[in-house]
Design goal:
α5 runs antiparallel to α14, α6 packs parallel to α14 and α7 packs across α12. This protein has 16 helices and 14 strands. 45% of the residues lie in helices and 13% in strands. The longest helix is centred in the last third of the chain and has 35 residues, at 359-393. With 486 residues, it is an alpha/beta fold. It has helices at 3-15, 18-36, 48-54, 66-77, 99-111, 122-138, 153-168, 172-175, 192-200, 220-232, 255-265, 320-326, 339-344, 359-393, 421-438, 465-485, and strands at 89-90, 146-150, 183-187, 208-211, 213-214, 217-218, 237-243, 269-272, 297-300, 313-317, 398-400, 408-413, 442-448, 451-457. The strands form three sheets. Strands 2-10-9-8-7-3-4 form a seven-stranded mixed sheet, sandwiched between helices. Bound molecules: pyridoxal-5'-phosphate. The site of pyridoxal-5'-phosphate has 15 residues, from α7. Pyridoxal-5'-phosphate binds at residues 93, 152-154, 191, 193, 243, 245-247, 272, 274-275, 301, 313.
Length: 486
């Protein structure tokens, strides 16, 4: 063999060793240890432009020593990450992942099983069916139920609505949706995944009908009026989408009322439980999903409140066959007509072809922590949001926008009450940015009823009520600095 090839194989063999793996896992373990101490900044103060300068270099043409590459990860990458495991990170709905699931990631990469067809992933395919079944049971779906893992809630909702389209317009796959397609009805605070799916499915955005909220939930009476009005106009409804755990406020639509409205009218109910379906794990919070059994499809993201690393999304269907017919895909070079393969292959049921065996880390999380422990974590995160709500209610300079129904809370700084709404919007926008730049903590913001507000999503098992108090103190201090400077 030529010398160069020998070198190449030697490098690959060396990189397959436990010693090499340890270089990477040691970085991850060090990150977990550092963030526990609460001493590092929660995020970077550097802008994307500043970070980009560091990486402005030509593509490497030759191999470099492993130590050099790992050193770059340590010195050039890690300093500017968002430290989701820092106890005062309270930003977006992305988890500080469950540790056993983190350590499963290298195995998923090493095995590289693709869920396209069962013959490419003999065990992972079976495990995906197993885990989907467990989750169907938690959701109260019966023996005919099924589902698939997805990249997240956006893909799950897209796929659910594709299945709803196949039910409403069975020949749309071949002939398109025509000039008078059915509508999709959703709440004002539905995630953009719903409108996006309506656009992607060719229905046209004007066929996404939005029901206003009351108390940050879909107004159920408004829904009934909307459905009556659509019926009077002889417009057919492809699906109603309810949200269990809305993005902005973590509120739950009233499935117990919405479900019967859909059932009476024979309408497909999709529940976007990307955030909130994990309440099913909790004895205390599962009641928020009462009425879920009316759903014909459910999006549930383990990479949110089950604290899995990205990505791990799940779509559950009350009738597995609805999913099997959603993608009327013919691909004889991959999908055989074989009866047994049809039962197991997940590719025909999925938007993706090559697909990671993310089920492995989900299965590991269930095995290692069990439903009870993951439910207890859900309870802990909701209790933190409740504590923060109470602390803010008692604080003279802040106003809460709602009581938390999960681990999400919106509030705003109001100071001594002398600012008007416009000035408060600008102040709260700037407050969030300067607080995050300080590195003390990290929160998000959102728009609620036209106003700019602050928002936290408490996702971190390490966060305590003291950390929450420190976030509030830090924001109040930052607000004082801003006022003194003006
Ligand atoms: C209610 C809801 N649905 C869907 C999504 C989209 O999920 P993903 O980012 O996993 O695609 C989100 C994400 O924030 C969400 O909060």
């Amino acid at each position: 063999m030529p010398r160069q090839e020998l070198d190449l194989l030697a490098i690959l063999e060396r990189d397959m060793s436990l010693e090499t793996a340890t270089h990477f896992t040691a970085l991850a373990a060090q990150y977990l240890a550092d963030t526990r101490e609460r001493e590092s900044a929660v995020s970077t103060g550097r802008s994307s432009d500043e970070i980009a300068e560091r990486f402005d270099e030509p593509i490497p043409l030759d191999a470099q020593p492993l130590e050099t590459v790992v050193g770059r990860l340590r010195d050039d990458v890690l300093p500017d990450v968002n430290r989701l495991y820092h106890p005062r990170y309270a930003g977006h709905q992305v988890s500080p992942p469950l540790p056993a699931a983190i350590w499963c990631e290298p195995l998923i990469g090493a095995l590289n099983q693709s869920l396209a067809v069962a013959e490419m992933s003999p065990v992972a395919t079976v495990l995906e069916h197993r885990v989907v079944r467990w989750m169907c049971e938690l959701a109260g779906l019966g023996a005919a139920a099924g589902g698939t893992l997805t990249s997240g809630g956006t893909e799950a909702t897209f796929t659910a609505l594709l299945a709803a389209r196949a039910a409403a317009l069975p020949d749309a796959w071949t002939n398109g949706v025509g000039t008078n397609p059915p509508v999709v009805v959703c709440g004002e605070h539905a995630h953009y995944a719903v409108a996006r799916a309506v656009g992607e499915l060719g229905l046209g955005l004007h066929n996404a009908v939005v029901v206003p909220s009351r108390g940050w939930r879909m107004d159920t009476e408004g829904l009934a009026l909307t459905l009556d009005s659509l019926a009077a106009q002889e417009r057919s409804v492809m699906a109603v989408v309810a949200t269990a755990g809305s993005t902005a406020t973590g509120s739950f639509d009233e499935l117990e009322a919405i479900g019967p409205l859909c059932h009476e009218r024979g309408l497909w109910l999709h529940v976007d439980g990307a955030h909130g379906a994990s309440a099913l794990l909790s004895e205390t919070h599962r009641d928020r999903l009462r009425g879920l059994a009316y759903a014909r499809s459910i999006a549930w993201d383990p990479h949110k409140m089950m604290l899995l690393p990205l990505s791990a999304g799940v779509l559950l269907m009350r009738e597995e066959k609805d999913l099997a017919t959603a993608f009327a895909q013919r691909a004889p070079y991959l999908f055989t007509g074989d009866e047994n393969a049809r039962q197991w292959d997940q590719g025909p049921r999925s938007f993706q072809c090559s697909r990671r065996a993310d089920v492995l880390k989900l299965w590991v999380a269930f095995q290692r922590y069990g439903v009870r422990m993951m439910g207890a974590l859900y309870d802990h995160l909701c209790a933190l949001a409740r504590s923060m709500y109470e602390q803010l209610e008692a604080h003279p300079q802040f106003e809460t926008m709602h009581e938390p129904e999960s681990n999400i809370l919106c509030f705003r700084w109001v100071g001594d009450g002398s600012f008007g709404d416009e000035a408060l919007d600008a102040f709260n926008r700037e407050l969030r940015e300067s607080y995050n730049r300080s590195g003390e903590g990290w929160i998000t913001g959102t728009n609620l009823a036209g106003r700019r507000v602050l928002r936290v999503t408490l996702m971190n098992p390490r966060t305590t009520t003291t950390d929450v108090a420190e976030i509030i103190d830090g924001l109040a201090r930052q607000a004082d600095v801003m006022r003194a400077a003006n």
